[in-house]
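USER:
Make up one protein:

ASSISTANT:
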Amino acid sequence: MSTKRLSFSLALLGLLSYACKAQSNPQAGLQLNQNQSQPLAASTQSCVQAADFCVSPSVQSPESADFAGCSKLPQTLQKNQFQAFCFDPFTGLPIPGVTIQLTFQAEAKTGGHLHTDPGRPHGDFTPASGLVDPTTNVLQTVYTSPDTAGIVDVTVSGTLSDGVTQCIPTVARIGVETHGLAAIPFSGSGYGTEPSTGHDSNNVFANPSVGTNLQRLPVSFDILAQALISAGFVSSQPIPTLTYLSLSLPFGGVFDVDTNGTGHIDSPWHPPHCGHRSGTQADLRIKNVPAELRPALVQSILDSHFIMPVKKENPSFPTASHWHLQAH
């Protein structure tokens, strides 16, 4: 059965079944349980990454009024039900008495993360092995997505009831991703961006409407600041170029950062950035914005449909090096 045919027949909601060779020519398969009714199911959209099928990352939520700490925010787990089996390629029927094994590993340097620290989250299958059901001849299992976007390689294998005949292991790719994000230009009218440690320039992705507002915000700031200067409310001065430090990664998910400014990711796969997961958040550097122009910047931020909810990353903290913008 070809990848193209499966992708079409399962409407991108199933993991590929692969042929394998053994004495009796059994074939290993893993597919989404299409009878599931749970709301947290695999996306019906095409995978953006080069994957056999795609799921959403688990998320820390919500981006609320005050981030007291990432560990204190509730997590929404994304779960997807699958069936694993070995089947006879001539009849297409699952073979009874098979013991299934699922092993999985996240691919390094995927999902916008360029660092290769060990222990990258890969999600989990529950169960990851077991005897197929005697009635359906399939192993029902649930895949819980990691909160890190990227590719997870899943190896499917099985042993027939004789304890000897094997379904030769084959690999399918799960794409963990948030759909619909697009990069804003690295620079534009009144603004620039900076690469992120561990992600380079993969840090400029946003929901399209949010990206549009982020590009309009510096224009609004320039107009308002110039008006204040012309009216004599503030001294004549150049209007500073704004700098966005971090938006979201290409496929969303956890955005781990260099919190200590050492040039290295401090806590791989942990979210010091509780937001920056879904393309609706951005960090804006304000160190180069004079205090007398900051009220104009605040007004421009509000006019551009953003709030600043993060403790110590908003105008109420004069020592903040940047402000966290959250779309609303």
The radius of gyration is 24 Å. The helical segments are 3-9, 208-230, 294-303.
